[in-house]
Specification:
With 262 residues, this protein is mainly β. It has four helices and 13 strands.
């Protein structure tokens, strides 16, 4: 059960990665051509997802999805307002699990951990999850955000890039050398107090009305110990979203004690 609880917490972080990958065919690098630098690969990726101007026009993402967790269907929603906040809600066996990040902090509601009140998200989880408040993902305008990028490895089919945020959180991306599509993302997490690699694989890319292509299928593996599959049902771009949904509400007031008989 601890695996499931931690998996659901991290799931909301990973689900926001739907904003970081799109697909437009590009010319594959030839054997004679010099290997591109890490920044050149990122720039080709950004061109593939529509270009900086197109990405900048997307101010919000609203997503409806369904997650398969231990054979159970868990419907969910994800809201992103660029630079403002990220919020995910998952309905698992009739219990609503909420995870939210904004530019100042994060909070969650998880009845499976014994409380229905909102509580702050631990700092390490916040540092991992706050990258999802930006449309385009961590690779978009990475230098302006204080992140660094390096080319870890390459072969005829893929490039592997390592991005390190200003908070020293690492993401490793595998990018297709032909399409410049992000195939997978790997980050570090904890399960039962053990460090594990969290690998998210992206597939089933579809074009939105604006031409912005997004993955409609994500498979998440938590160190080989726990797996979740997510299917996106609907995506809306630039929908009006109240920023207040990213602010942590106050805990519910306790019920008044029953009055004593006179």
């Amino acid at each position: 059960m601890k695996n499931l609880i931690r998996g659901l917490i991290v799931l909301s972080v990973i689900a926001g990665a739907v904003s970081l990958s799109t697909q437009t065919p590009q010319e594959p690098p030839t054997a004679q051509a010099a290997a591109p630098t890490a920044d050149e690969i990122v720039q080709k990726h950004l061109a593939a997802i529509g270009g900086k101007e197109a990405i900048g026009q997307v101010k919000s993402i609203s997503m409806e999805s369904s997650a398969q967790i231990m054979g159970n269907d868990a419907p969910g929603t994800t809201l992103i307002v660029d630079g403002v906040g990220y919020r995910s809600e998952i309905d698992f066996n009739g219990q609503k699990i909420i995870n939210t990040f904004n530019d100042k902090g994060g909070w969650m509601v998880n009845p499976m951990m014994g409380s229905s009140d909102p509580t702050p998200i631990p700092d390490d989880q916040y540092k991992l999850g706050k990258t999802q408040i930006f449309v385009g993902g961590p690779l978009f305008d990475y230098a302006a955000k204080g992140s660094k990028i390096e080319l870890v490895s390459k072969d005829d089919k893929t490039f592997k890039l390592k991005l390190t945020t200003k908070d020293n959180v690492d993401f490793v991306y595998t990018i297709d050398a032909e399409t410049y599509l992000v195939k997978s993302q790997v980050s570090k997490g904890k399960m039962q107090d053990q460090d594990v690699d969290i690998t998210t694989s992206f597939s089933d890319y579809r074009k939105t009305d604006t031409g912005y292509m997004l993955p409609y299928a994500m498979d998440i593996d938590f160190g080989g110990n726990f797996q979740i599959s997510i299917t996106v049902k609907k995506i809306e771009l630039n929908k009006t979203i109240d920023p207040a949904v990213f602010e942590m509400p106050k805990p519910a007031a306790p019920a008044p004690a029953p009055s004593k008989p006179a």
